[in-house]
Amino acid sequence: MTGFNPQNPMIVQGDMTVLLETQNPQYIEARDQLARFAELEKSPDYMHTYRITALGLWNAASSGMTSDEICDALLKFAKYPVPDTVLLQVREQISRYGALKLVREDGQLFLLGPDSVTMTQITKFKPVKALLGRRIDETRYEIDDSKRGELKQALIKVNFPVEDLAGYIDGEALDIELRETMLSGKQFGLRQYQKDASEIFYASGGAKGGSGTLVLPCGAGKTVIGIATMALVGQKTLILTTNITALRQWKDEIIDKTTLTEDQVGEYSGEVKIVRPVTLTTYQLLTYRKSKTDEFVHMDLFNAENWGLIIYDEVHMLPAPVFRSVANIQARRRLGLTATLVREDGMEDDVFSLIGPKKFDMPWKDLESQGWIAKAICMELRIPLPRCMKQEFAASELRDQFRIASENPFKIDVIHYLVEEHSDDNILIIGQYIDQLEMISREFNAPIITGKTPNKERQAIYGAFKRKEYKIIIVSKVANFAIDLPDANVAIQVSGTFGSRQEEAQRLGRVLRPKGEGIENVAHFYSVTTKDTMEQDCAQARQRFLTEQGYTYKIAFPEFDADAEQRATDIWAEITARREQRARLKEAGNEVEEEEEERAPA
Prior knowledge:
Largest sheet: 7 strands, parallel
Distance between the termini: 40 Å
Helix content: 25-40%
Shape: globular
CATH architecture of the largest domain: 3-Layer(aba) Sandwich
Number of strands: 23
Oligomer: single chain
């Protein structure tokens, strides 16, 4: 063991976990270093727990961090001696990234290794062995081009991340230039970090670039980075987005900021199916099939044109079926854009191996300090259950308890208070349960957007909000992604998807975009939860990623009088009646809108 100072904030443990004291003067500096290669697992008030994983280390290595830098950070901030086994593990895992390489020589694809021992070792794994071709010599195997993606997937599962240097085929050329003056009449230029991110991905067109993931906060202009990358590549481009709202925002941005004309940018959606040199589609459309046993109808879009670049917006949302298609197109340049690499389904290693490793990571607080995103003030308001609900809550199953806590009628009173406090602001009220959101919509006479709201109506509501015709809009979780509402500066979260860290980050992101002229560049994010319930526990889990990025949540405990108790009783009776009506409609075979899609944890 080596290196320590009792005044330091970090305790490095032999199981690759790191404890970090949040009250220590060096906390912020130590946290910023840890976030580059470790993941926050627990975040109680005084001691945070991080875990150093192989994937985290490989992503750090791919973005340029060395084993010496990581070990030096652990030694610099350690309170007690750092176990030698941890330093050895760090060096071992970092050395694994790039030990195996895919290269192309004279048109043939090869897997290269550091020595004969490693190359013999990987053949012990049956899924890997089945994908290897002829062994040329002690450190080289021939690889069939069609197996390129599958091999990378198989090898990362057995802790052998592959550095893919096999290069890319050129797609059909497309002249794309960035405008200096946008069609809107405003001046346009890349911010330095946007320029850096696109150039790091492109790597001057060499084999070291062309595939990878760029991680930047919501509001940092990931669409602009995608457009800048398109201009660097200069080839036909396919762009995958989360929904049709995002698709059309991308389309507007491309036409506004590049020399491409409207007839060069196509939409391939449920409403329009036009393939053009730049084509935009949605994950939902690509994964459409008539039944679970049928083929995916639109997946051949990947091969419909000679694409030179494929962009995956919000890559952490990439559906599992799309990964199979991605595995087959490893010769195409692939760019992933996201605010967080966190996937609730645990498929981060597939993003790493098939889209590409993390090439660029811009901390949220860095952009905040530079004024490129709004300063965020986060608060969790923990409220009690009304007396009228306690018996039903106690008698309910775990999943129902979560919903009851989420629909707590006291939340209406809290929203009234927050709306009065922010009477001059532009407010998004975000939730997951339709009955709850519809009730809030009626209470505040505010428009509501859910999964059933037609796209034309959604755009009309968003447009009216931008024009300040509405000061409040209610949105379900369909609005978690890609809503461009720069003047929104207050978000009130009344219910969420259990412990989803990515959802929390995306919802905060709705109000982080730089504010318009005359609006203070500050955002408020409120999360209203029912205390001493599973909803409170899930809220703490949801906050982990943002805590890792340097955000802190103030905690408040509102109190409620007898009048509030009576209002809560009346509201709960209405919610219960609506839920019973909904259940009867479903039983009768009617289609009923639901947005509670994920299962509660056991």
